[in-house]
Amino acid sequence: MTTAALDRDPPAVAGGSPAKTTPYRQERRYGEEELAELREALEQGTLFYAQGQKVKALEKAFAESVGAAHAIACSSGTAAIHSALIAAGVSPGDEVIVTPITDMGSIAPILYQGAIPVFADLDPHTYNIAPTSVAARITPRTRAILAVHLAGNACDLRALKKIADRHGLLLIEDCAQAHGARYEGRAVGTWGQIGCYSYNEFKHISCGDGGVVVTEDAALAKKLRLATDKCYDRSPDALVRQPVFLANNYRMTELQGAVALAQLRKLPSIVQRRRDWCGALNERLRDVPGISLPQVTSGCDPSWWFYLMRVKPQTLRADADRLAEALRAEGLPVSAHYIGNCLYEYPIFTQHSAFERGEHPYAAYPYARGKCPEAEAILETGVMLAVKESYSDADLEETIYAIRRVARWFAGQ
Ligand SMILES: Cc1ncc(COP(=O)(O)O)c(C=O)c1O
């Protein structure tokens, strides 16, 4: 059907034909490259990272890919963040400033360290922590800022680094959703003291589950390695079992390392395709009434993990639920409200129920709706479009057409 014909067509929720005429293009994410690496891993006769070559090769390639001196692989993004907090010396009673829109994997490690997550409010357009709000949350107990680069878009790293340096705080980057994103030409994850990545099934690249931490600092790198491996020093000249601090088994196996290595080679193409596809959305949807588009942080080359729009209910004359429903009727993979609630609204915070008994310093900290109004408004008005690098040009045209047609219809234009 021509665009002109579709223009006269009412949206699918009003009885028109859906804009999406064919399914979104899919592709297999694992193939011969991963199988070849897996075969080599198995043929080594060991799957233990300290004896095999795959995790070592991954660490070398990952460090090179982001331009960091050191990379240490581990078992998940959550493990990466926990290891980073351990290496950074985050201890009971410390406060860590973080966004309220993220995965529990960013926050659980703070609680495990006996520390207190302090939620800062967000920029309404980039959806990342607002430096002014971060600065306002600093107290004598603040030890670190955990900068989560949501949906592949960098935080305002220059401003956050300035705040961290001025107050003697550690800046730790959660890049779980931002593989391949850059800020002022440098990879995210290399601006703070430690950068943390996830290789879980749903990220840009995956080995089922896995993680990587990167740092420039040799002393931190040594601590990070210990933090991923029960504080056992595996170097040949070390006394093996002399743990000096508390650390879990967060090791990556050679099987994960093999798949992760093959996936890393695919990352540049994955990021480029996402950048082109979502960049075109941002360009061509600019004048759509009633919808505010995600704003790329100034200085960032984003890697677009998903595409989060916001409704302007007064102009659109519809809320996020109605827009999402209408776009789903067009065949788009959308949902309203992203994670639903800010993390501090979860029972684990409002009821301080992390542990069954005993004192945890976060129990003295009040968590309730209203803490971060911008973040709450982002979730209230947010409509998320799932993005895959496999999407085609035809998918792009139909997606743009669907959003334009539905928005114009709601807005009465
Ligand atoms: C921003 C963010 N941080 C941390 C994590 C935790 O990563 P993992 O699931 O690998 O533990 C995720 C995963 O969804 C995430 O999106």
Give the topology.
Elements: H1 3-8, H2 32-43, H3 54-66, E1 70-74, H4 77-87, E2 95-98, H5 104-112, E3 116-119, H6 131-136, E4 142-148, H7 157-167, E5 170-174, E6 182-183, E7 186-187, E8 194-198, E9 211-215, H8 218-227, H9 254-284, E10 291-292, E11 300-301, E12 306-311, H10 313-316, H11 320-329, E13 334-336, H12 347-350, H13 373-381, E14 382-386, H14 393-411
Parallel strand pairs: 2-3, 2-4, 4-5, 5-8
Antiparallel strand pairs: 1-9, 6-7, 6-11, 8-9, 10-12, 12-14, 13-14
The protein binds pyridoxal-5'-phosphate.
Pyridoxal-5'-phosphate is lined by residues 76-78, 102-103, 105-106, 148, 174, 176-177, 198, 200, 209, 211.
What are the bound molecules? pyridoxal-5'-phosphate
Spatial ordering of strands, largest sheet: 1-9-8-5-4-2-3
- N-to-C SSE string, H for helix and E for strand: HHHEHEHEHEHEEEEEHHEEEHHEHHEH
> What oligomerization state is this entry in?
single chain
Strand content: 5-15%
The outline comes out as: globular
What is the CATH domain class of one domain? Alpha Beta
Task: Please summarize the sheet with the most strands.
Answer: 7 strands, mixed
> According to CATH, what is the topology of one domain?
Aspartate Aminotransferase, domain 2
Structural class determined from secondary elements: alpha/beta
Descriptive overview:
There is one protein chain. The chain has a seven-stranded mixed sheet, sandwiched between helices. Helix content is about 40%, strand content about 15%. The chain is built from 14 helices and 14 strands. Strand 2, helix 5 (about 105-110) and strand 3 form a beta-alpha-beta unit. The protein has a domain at about 30-265: Aspartate Aminotransferase, domain 2, CATH 3.40.640. It is an alpha/beta fold and about 425 residues long. The longest helix has about 30 residues, at about 255-285. The protein binds pyridoxal-5'-phosphate.
